[in-house]
């Protein structure tokens, strides 16, 4: 009887483990994106001197030095790799062994290529470093070393994280003075380009794909400082700029609908929408629920200047800026990127829910 009870208990434990992802494993993680997820592509061979995010105090919390990550420490893909017992993702441009994953993400990446920005008269306003199509080319080039002749099987057992994409496309236009109506007009083209990129990866063999939406840009101190107004009606109840957040929600709703259609086209693929927007809004509203103290205040900024501790002429990594001594209490690291503490929480929200639909662990 006791033996049977023990066997039943063992079966229940195993079932729970399977349901909660205890037995879920990936052979590799392949990541694509921009500064939210770059783990060093722009800093291969050393960070360029003009790159503020390549200077101290970036990286101080975990790596004790700048690594090219736009944070005080690890980013989301680092925490995903750690969860699945994989090494931190190497930057694809660094070369090496990619059998357990690679990161194609690079600071400044856009969804659209140079031709698009040329067509809308913005070619002189952006530095386009590795747009989505280029990152897919980098990925194709490393495949022989990652999986040889068995790529379909290997990629079907790997996790793909594609994005976020779109943030820099909109930044390029907004920071160049384009109207919000103009920028909203670009959204369908940006989203359809993301979906085309996803189709390319699925055809190569990707089966588990996480696709994050864009962040609530109207809540970031860089936007709040550059585009702040004296009109209370321009702000929502969280202290964020309404029209900028409406751009983000427009992108995300279109992306979500497009992913639903893509899922129908490729029913065997598991397409997961990661809701960056909803989680960051919750972290601003109630930072304490995520182990944080501060919502819209910047950790690495201009020594207490202004409402958000942000000065665009003394950004983190520039002279005149300094980092707080307790980044673990902050959501926002430098005015546009998040802290390691925030990224850990977001990774958890994607793995276990409720901020990824369906959640990564199944």
TrEMBL record:
Q: Which CDD domains match?
A: SGNH_plant_lipase_like
Sorted UniProt keywords: Glycoprotein, Hydrolase, Signal
Is Ribosomal protein one of the keywords?
no
Extract one GO molecular function annotation from the record. Answer: hydrolase activity, acting on ester bonds
**What PANTHER family does the record point to?**
OS05G0209600 PROTEIN, ZINC FINGER FYVE DOMAIN CONTAINING PROTEIN
User: Which family is this sequence assigned to?
Assistant: Belongs to the 'GDSL' lipolytic enzyme family.
Name it.
Answer: GDSL esterase/lipase
